[in-house]
Amino acid sequence: MTEAMAGSREDPHAQARSARSAPVLLHSMSIFREIFEIVFARRGIRTVVEIGVESGQVSGIYAELGASDVYCVDPEPTERVRSAVEANDALHLVTEPSPEVLPRLPVADLYVLDGDHNYAVVRREVAWILEHAPDAVVAMHDLLWPWGRRDLYYEPSPLKAGDRHPISEDGPTVWHDELTPAGFVGLGAFTVARHAGGERNGVLTAVEDALAEHPEWRFELVPAVFGMGILYRAETDPDEALQRALRPYTTSNLLAAMENNRIALYTRVLQMQFEAAAQADDRDRLADTVAAQRHEIDRLTAELHRAWAVLRSG
Ligand SMILES: C[S@@+](CC[C@H](N)C(=O)[O-])C[C@H]1O[C@@H](n2cnc3c(N)ncnc32)[C@H](O)[C@@H]1O
After folding, report:
1. CB 154 near ligand 1, within 6 Å
2. Is the shortest distance between the CB of 58 and ligand 1 below 6 Å?
3. Does residue 102 lie in a domain region?
4. Which of 73, 99, 132, 190 is surrounded by the most beta carbons within 10 Å?
5. What average pLDDT does range 41-55 have in this prediction?
6. What is the rounded CA–CA span in Å between residue 210 and residue 212?
7. Which strand (E) or helix (H) includes residue 309?
């Protein structure tokens, strides 16, 4: 681990190489592989329902860890997902949206919720699972900032008006509490609730409300990369082996501090990109104005020359 992480005297750039090969914004649940390893090692997980697949980066991990069937649910599957599913017999693509599709799929040992990150959808997903899959583990993403207490809606949203808060195309930043076009914006892919907090708003609020009706379920939170939640019935972990194995992650102040630093830095980068783009627009507008004025000056000069020529010849 040390050499893989820190390199060596002969290869001092190993860590930097690894750092620059990662995306600027980590957001895929593939980063939680070691948490999934803990879950798979302690539970007989054969069937997985993965809601929200995007690139398909994580789907193969469940098969690698021992799942025989992984139902990859995403109404907008990319070509990359389609190829990943075709190449792996354990993966099955489902293009109906969640939560509507849940009753039509086999009851799973592990549900991974990372689809539409809003109260209405997550509340229904969790309610269905807690009622119909009492022995399952549920892994969920985006329990912390920005979607823990603020709804995100993939657009066009199939939700009824009553299930959505008033929306904005601006996005949140950690640098102030108001939304801003320089924040975490969806660029047409998603909108966000104009207000954070309150009732029926955000992924964490949905989980809290579902748990209030099912106190027999335990909730763990890993405070990294937007927050990963893990739900399971306390009775399915009688010796608390799963809870103990997760503890170094769920109680880590270090992870929480690094996550806060990460979102602060990332939203600062977003703001700087926005300002750089605005300055580039200003420069372009100025260049257009100067070009138009030069053209006008050239036209007036030519007119003047013509007038002089007429005067001289007269
Ligand atoms: C954040 S991405 C998922 C990322 C993926 N889980 C990963 O960790 O790499 C969210 C995905 O959810 C999908 N999605 C949106 N609404 C959904 C719904 N109602 N049911 C299932 N998937 C949905 C979107 O198309 C998008 O691909």
Report:
1. yes
2. yes
3. yes
4. 73
5. 96
6. 5
7. helix 253-313
Q: Which CATH number does the domain housing residue 245 bear?
A: 3.40.50.150
Contacts 24+ apart (CB under 8 A), 194-199: 194/165, 194/166, 194/167, 194/168, 195/150, 195/165, 195/166, 196/149, 196/150, 196/172, 197/149, 197/150
Atom 16 in ligand 1: residue holding the nearest Cα:
116
Is 163 near ligand 1, meaning CB less than 6 Å away?
Answer: no
Give the atom of ligand 1 at the shortest distance from the alpha carbon of 55: 9
Q: What is the pLDDT averaged over residues 28-50?
A: 97
Q: Does residue 88 belong to any structural domain of this protein?
A: yes
Token pair, residue 18, equals 């690894």
Find the helix or strand (DSSP H, E) in which 111 lies. strand 110-113
Ligand 1 contact, 54 CB (< 6 A)? yes
- Closest approach atom of ligand 1 to CA 97: 20
CB-CB contact of 166 with 194 (8 Å): yes
Cα 198 from Cα 211, distance rounded (Å)? 17
Bridge-based pairing state of the strands 217-222 and 228-233: antiparallel
CA 171 to chain centre: 13
Atom of ligand 1 nearest to the CA of 56: 9
Q: What letter represents residue 55's amino acid? A: S
**pLDDT for 104 beyond 90:** yes
Atom of ligand 1 nearest to the CA of 52: 12
Domain membership of residue 209 (yes or no) is: yes
When pLDDT is averaged across residues 68-73 and rounded to a whole number, the result is 98
pLDDT more than 70, % of the chain: 100
Tokens of 132: 């119909």
Tell me if 57 CB under 6 Å of ligand 1: yes
Report how many domains make up the chain.
Answer: 1
Task: Please tell me if the CB atom of residue 97 comes closer than 6 angstroms to any atom of ligand 1.
Answer: yes
The domain of 193 spans: 2-252
CA atoms within 13 A on the CB side of 58: 28
